[in-house]
């Protein structure tokens, strides 16, 4: 009998990670006809929420604003239709506000962007349950649970032809996973990236994203609200189905500590300064459901190595002020699948030239989002009166330029 310590699993693609981006990549490669190994770490605790009815499940504090690129990819993989769509909210408009009593204002709406909706707010649990259900029917996906301890890669020949080269991952129990292409989808502190000796530029924002959910007295009408402040960070209230909203407050660390020490009732009172006139009184949906996520800018020096491609937060982590960190990850999957699909027949899927095309294809989109989010954080984080005036003037000016607004929204939606 074969024991785990002597088992070798060989597939075309091995994906390291257990989040939505890793699962989406696994489905994408599997539906393209490749054999896939999906390596996930052991679960920390049982996932029992999937067995509860929709009415019983609490609202997940972690939500994503998915753009059209993400929507179209998930729809093509037959995942979007598997979501609990009663728990998905469409974003029909955005209301952006500057700081101060005379703060600037900027508005976007689906009609002006010439689309049916700007984005969709989806809970992390809803998305992952749909992906897990789809993976059960993917016969060429081999799901493995274990802890990776060693990664080895061997370069292909100079002519790029397929050969007995590739990547291999050794697990702590001795099992070995071999593949032609290894995809690192293992998050901001990526083990795969570290094993490939890929350096990173790292900027600590000294902020934490406080996330939780509230019921609101007034209907939100599908509007996502955002307030840029100097001293209190960036406050966003995103629409959930019904009279509910999801809070993402990118707060300076000292304020974040205070917010986490207070009750959600006290947090709701604080939010009244921003939201009372638009949403009415806010009430916590679940008094104990709140989380704080440290924020940082992570820019790896490369997103590919021999037989290795990074996707998602392993390839880039940005400030959540634009809500596009997850969308960048879905864009990675779309482009990686495309360059593999369009490669020359003689080239293996982990060929150096194929992966170089992926890196080039992602460079502009990722760089623009990094510059935009980091630049806005720096601009609105500076507590200087001249900058305050310029910021508010800029928001008001942009609001009066519909053509430029449409271009910005097209890029944000993935329709540029």
What features would you describe in this structure?
This protein is an alpha/beta fold. The protein has helices at 20-31, 68-76, 110-113, 124-136, 191-195, 253-261, 264-279, 325-341, 352-381, 385-399, 402-413, and strands at 8-10, 13-16, 36-40, 63-66, 89-91, 93-97, 105-109, 119-123, 141-145, 148-153, 167-171, 176-179, 181-184, 200-216, 223-228, 234-240, 244-252, 282-284, 291-300, 304-305, 308-310. The protein has two domains: 4-44 and 129-200 and 298-372, 3-Layer(bba) Sandwich (FAD/NAD(P)-binding domain); 67-123 and 202-295 and 379-413, D-Amino Acid Oxidase, Chain A, domain 2, CATH 3.30.9.10. It is built from eleven helices and 21 strands. The strands form four sheets. Strands 6, 7, 14, 15, 16, 17, 18 and 19 form an eight-stranded mixed sheet that branches. A six-stranded mixed sheet has the order 9-3-2-13-21-20. A four-stranded mixed sheet has the order 1-12-11-10, with no helix packed on it. The model is unreliable at 156-164 (pLDDT under 50).
């Amino acid at each position: 009998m074969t024991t785990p310590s002597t088992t070798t699993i060989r597939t075309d693609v091995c994906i390291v990670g257990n989040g939505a981006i890793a699962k989406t990549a696994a489905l994408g490669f599997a539906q393209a006809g490749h054999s896939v190994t999906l390596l996930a770490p052991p679960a920390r605790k049982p996932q029992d929420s999937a067995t509860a009815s929709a009415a019983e499940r609490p609202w997940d504090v972690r939500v994503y604003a998915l753009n059209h690129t993400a929507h179209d990819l998930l729809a093509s993989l037959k995942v979007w239709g598997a979501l609990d769509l009663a728990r998905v909210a469409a974003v029909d408009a955005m209301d952006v506000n500057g700081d101060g009593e005379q703060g600037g204002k900027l508005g976007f709406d689906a009609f002006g962007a010439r689309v049916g909706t700007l984005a969709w707010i989806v809970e992390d649990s809803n998305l992952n349950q749909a992906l897990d259900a789809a993976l059960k029917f993917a016969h060429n996906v081999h799901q493995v649970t274990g802890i990776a301890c060693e990664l080895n890669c061997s370069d292909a020949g100079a002519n790029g032809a397929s050969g007995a080269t590739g990547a291999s991952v050794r697990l702590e129990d001795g099992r070995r996973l071999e593949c032609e292409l290894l995809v690192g989808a293992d998050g901001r502190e990526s083990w795969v990236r570290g094993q490939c000796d890929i350096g990173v530029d790292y900027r600590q924002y000294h902020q934490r994203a406080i996330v939780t959910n509230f019921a609101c007295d007034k209907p939100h009408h599908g509007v996502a609200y955002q307030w840029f402040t100097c001293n209190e960070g960036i406050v966003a209230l995103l629409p959930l189905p019904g009279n509910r909203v999801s809070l993402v407050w990118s707060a300076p660390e000292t304020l974040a500590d205070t917010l986490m020490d207070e009750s959600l009732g006290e947090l709701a009172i604080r939010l009244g300064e921003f939201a009372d006139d638009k949403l009415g009184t806010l009430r916590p949906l679940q008094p104990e459901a709140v989380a704080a996520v440290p924020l940082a800018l992570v820019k790896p020096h490369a997103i590919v190595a021999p037989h290795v491609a990074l996707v998602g937060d392993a390839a880039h982590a940005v400030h959540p002020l634009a809500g596009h960190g997850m969308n960048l990850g879905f864009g990675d999957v779309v482009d990686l699948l495309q360059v593999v699909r369009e490669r020359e027949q003689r080239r293996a899927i982990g060929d150096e030239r194929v992966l170089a095309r992926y890196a080039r294809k992602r460079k502009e989109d990722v760089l623009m989002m990094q510059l935009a989010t980091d630049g806005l954080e720096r601009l609105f984080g500076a507590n200087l009166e001249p900058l305050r005036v310029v910021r508010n003037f800029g928001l008001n000016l942009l609001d009066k330029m519909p053509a430029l607004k449409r271009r910005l929204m097209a890029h944000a939606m993935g329709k540029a």
